[in-house]
Design brief:
The complex is a heterotrimer of chains A (161), B (761) and C (288). Helices cover 28% and strands 25% of the residues of chain B. Chain B has 761 residues and is an alpha+beta fold. The N terminus of chain B is likely disordered. Chain C folds into three domains: 45 residues, Uridine Diphospho-n-acetylenolpyruvylglucosamine Reductase, domain 2 (2-Layer Sandwich), CATH 3.30.43; 110 residues, Uridine Diphospho-n-acetylenolpyruvylglucosamine Reductase, domain 3 (2-Layer Sandwich); 108 residues, 2-Layer Sandwich (Enolase-like, domain 1), CATH 3.30.390. Classes of the chains: A alpha+beta (161), B alpha+beta (761), C alpha+beta (288). The interface between A and C is medium-sized, with 33 and 30 residues.
Amino acid sequence: MSKIHISATVNGDPVEFLTEAGVTLLDALRDELALTGSKEGCGSGDCGACSVILDGRLTCSCLILAAEAQGRRIETIEGMARGGELHPLQQKFLDHAALQCGFCTPGLLIAAKALLDANPDPTETETRYWLAGNLCRCTGYDKVIRAVMDAAAELRQVRAA
Amino acid sequence: MSDAPTKNRPDTAALKVIGTRPVRPDGVDKVTGRAAYGADFRAPGMLTGRVKRSPHAHARIVSIDTRKARALAGVKAIVTAADFPDLASQEYEAGESASNLRDLAMNVMARNKVLYQGHPVAAVAAVSASIAEAAVALIEVTYETLPHVIDVEAAMAPDAPLLHSHLFTEGVSPRPASPSNIAKRHLFVRGDVDAALAAAEVVIDRRYTTQAVHQGYIEPHACVAEMAADGQCQVWSSSQGQFMVRTYCAKVLGIEISDIRVTPAEIGGGFGGKTTVYLEPLALALSRQSGAPVKMVMTREEVFTATGPTSGSVMHVRLGATREGRITAADVELKFQAGAFPGSPAGAASMTAIACYDVADFRVVGWDVVTNSPKVAAYRAPGAPIAAFAVESAIEELAQQLGLDPIAIRRLNGVRDGMKAAYGPTFENIGFMETLDAIESHPHYKAPLGPNQGRGVAVGFWFNIGGESSAAVHLSEDGGAVVATGSPDIGGSRASMAMMAAEVLGLPVERVRPIVADTASIGFTGLTGGSRTTFATGMAVVQAAEKVIEELKRRAALIWDVPVETVTWEAGAAIGPLDPKGGARRLDLDTLAAQSGRTGGPISAEVSLNAQGAGPGFGAHICDVEVDPETGQVTVLRYTAAQDVGRAIHPSYVEGQVQGGVAQGVGWALNEEYVFDVDGRMENAGFLDYRVPVASDLPMIDAVLVEVPNPRHPFGAKGVGEVPIVPPLAAVANAVRAATGVRLDDLPLSPPKIRAALQKG
Amino acid sequence: MADLDYVAPASVAGAIEALAGGGAKVLAGGTDLLVQMRAGRVKPQRIVDLKRIPGLIGVRQENGGFVIGASTSGAELGEHAALIHAWPGVVEAVQLIGSTQVQGRASIGGNLCNASPAADSVPALVAARAICVVVGGQGRRELPVEAVVTAPGATVLAPDEFLLEIRLPPRAARASDAYLRQIPRTEMDIAVVGAGVSLTLDAAGVCSEAHVALGAVAPTVLLVEAAGAALIGTTLDDAALDALAQAAEAACRPISDKRGTAEYRTRIAGVLARRAAAIAYRRASERT
């Protein structure tokens, strides 16, 4: 059968790749575009390790067909740092030791970025519910939540300045 | 233990790096998506492997017909048990995960019989995933299904379906005349427990049950493996021990250990579950047949159905005590599911069950029972949380019956230095009382509670282990250092290795780069497991750094032309005797490293050791819950966990270990369980219905680090990773009891169960 | 999957044509379909992505009511202030489906057409007396929400039909709704029981119209008329709420499964109906 040609924007750059109808966006990102920062933890949308932002919306890339990406804008963990400069969320995750094994970290960071894009001043409860789709088995979430709240505070200061 | 040189060891009061919180060396890779985990590796020309698994819980394999699958275009290899040697029974020690190699091989690929749903019966390699999946579907396996048994007590019954016709119970005499599902009895006895119970003023007698739970690491098992035409093998995989992978692959395939080189990928969580092999031997066998590298990655469903959970259990506890609350007798029976092959943590559970308490007369019996479920693997303090759920619940009930404060009863009976542990050795330098002090003085303990709220307390113990580790320290010519170890970094051990080396060398931690080396590049190192890495591998790092300093002093002595004994090492520099003009002699590490080419060549040291003297760890937890009396829903409101950690090398990652262990324990207490249907198939093999805690399920978890240093470690460290999962099951259950007045002895404490218990009153 | 193709028609007619060949599955948010395909539970030959059809995504106000495109996601509904004001229960129900990630994709129409008895949005839509607009080769038809699903996994839709939009009726001055579900965790679970209540009050605060729907207590979502009737003419005093809970429990025909026992589901249906009614009543009372 013939392959489907997809043109999309990934992390601000135009990309093209060939895919098949049943292939997920996650597999296309990892296998066709070699963007392996998005992880597969479950393949059913229950763990959030594959989180990407699609046209401004936080989604699980395992629940999207690659074919659906035609003409869409996709943000992945690989686009979060600007050049050599980490995003404040990335820096706060490091400062707060908000990761242990690190496998869920890209998904958590993308989800947290989507949260702060939508709500610059989330409460702890709002943060916990927003991130409920990102399973982390190592940290018990404590330091993750602290890092996100701290990054939010810093970003608010930056915006106010 | 190898004799540690101590003369260059910094005074602990003057520590500059230990106890600080630097950014971890692998941090940037892990927040940018660059870190490469098991499934992120690609080899040129690699094939995709898939596993054909049993749909039955118990069946005889009548035939396997692979002809149609082989005929499918793009299929490059198919293996079954016929492609692996039929091994003899042989025990193999690998730290906490002792295995019988024959069982290991038969778990990797079923031979003659399948023993659980998900048991591999064949594996395929093909040029694409879809072709491999189509080939798996084309393999025709004819089964003769057999009655199955999963419940541990049903499996112990004389008329139970028999998993292994060769299994005769060990640890009983005389040896049974007929085989059974009971693999082993563990027995720990002191005094006369029956007499002590008969004489006790108060007796608590309770039965407790728990279900199998999974480690729940977010990264599924994954590997790429290659066997060249000359038999040389390469494996890239995510595991808790690259040397474990090497040994197990060699044994399962019947090849030489030295023909395999295993490169550790980043590991996305293990918690004990990645202390064995599932895919790697299959991938190597497929590569041997196809001549190409083979990549295999499990689905989440495969992880749940075919990799190790820990045991479900039935436990019986009888405690005898005086009216004042002094425990005089403990009779504990633990029946543990092992899954398809022997090896449940019933032994460790038996040893830890009453380890926190000084009890004159006791009998602890642990039963290891095979069942038609996936073979259990280690899970964080294997067995201890299960036993602690029973014993800590019983202690709570005793305290309640006697009107005693839950901390007071534990202080009254708790172990102290010099006491002989129930499992044998005599305790030294333990911090149990200090952890009780820490929770008692914590504001949490006296905080007011509202309606439908309750507070629970529980404590826990883990041995912590040492064992075999290797480490190398290489100085670069600019005075920085590389630290190589053989210990996979699951939770931040690169940071602690770099910090320990930096402390000894007198370098800023940023100038020490830690790596996890492959099996060809560092000496043998046991698994990352048993809370041994910071202790044992850390000890190797410290000793290697100390050897480097000895060499640096020798070089300085050479340059100054003074006897080496006159040179000391202070704050990152060699200090020599005053020069003839009375001037100070000082050569810092950078200068010595820069001159190393002229003073004898590169400066490196490698140390391999077998570390002994890991200090046991204790934790004491407080949990507050609120129970919705109408729905039975439990909300964890507040959690405080105090733990003796010896000395925290990087306190943030130590706190993280405690918080993560608590979260897993809370999940175990409230919602996690394997659910099987009547045919023995797992009904909830996914993160939707196997319910690990999500962020909104938990409060902040206050980790209180108590530091009672371990004198056998250069900086006083004790293992920390396992203790924190031991108390939460009972802490949550005790809190639910306090909130509702109803005691539930069957985990998980899911809403339907709690509501039903409340209705019964 | 080798025989699978993907089309994304830009018109209703194009979609009907794409579906006509048979063996096709409609793709909206994909949060159920992709999971089912991966598990091998469905094996379509064609995937028809509806999201590029104008009107399939979005909310518009029409004749005092709301028209919701079937492929509209929970996240989008949660940003529509007028819809939230008029139908807070419907929006909160849709927003309980899955994680934030799933919210970004899962559609209100997909939640219905997946035909799960536990679908969160459906009890709220049934209580709201929502109407479904279905299009297909035989033309266009309208039917009440509760008539769409016939059994777990089964709907009345013909192979070449699909759900175009969901219509919510105009709202009286003092009317509101609420949806509650019971799950073992705080998030990420399938409802063990769900309860949607919509009611209208007169000027005196007496309930003049009430509809109660229950999820996950029968093969399909139940509209429990007796439960609604128990509220009418009352100010939702304890006696009325007791009668509501009893009627709700009496209607339940649940199964026991890995998510809950039949007994538990029945009792919780009463508890949740009562709680949801109280919330809806409070919301309606706050309106003038």
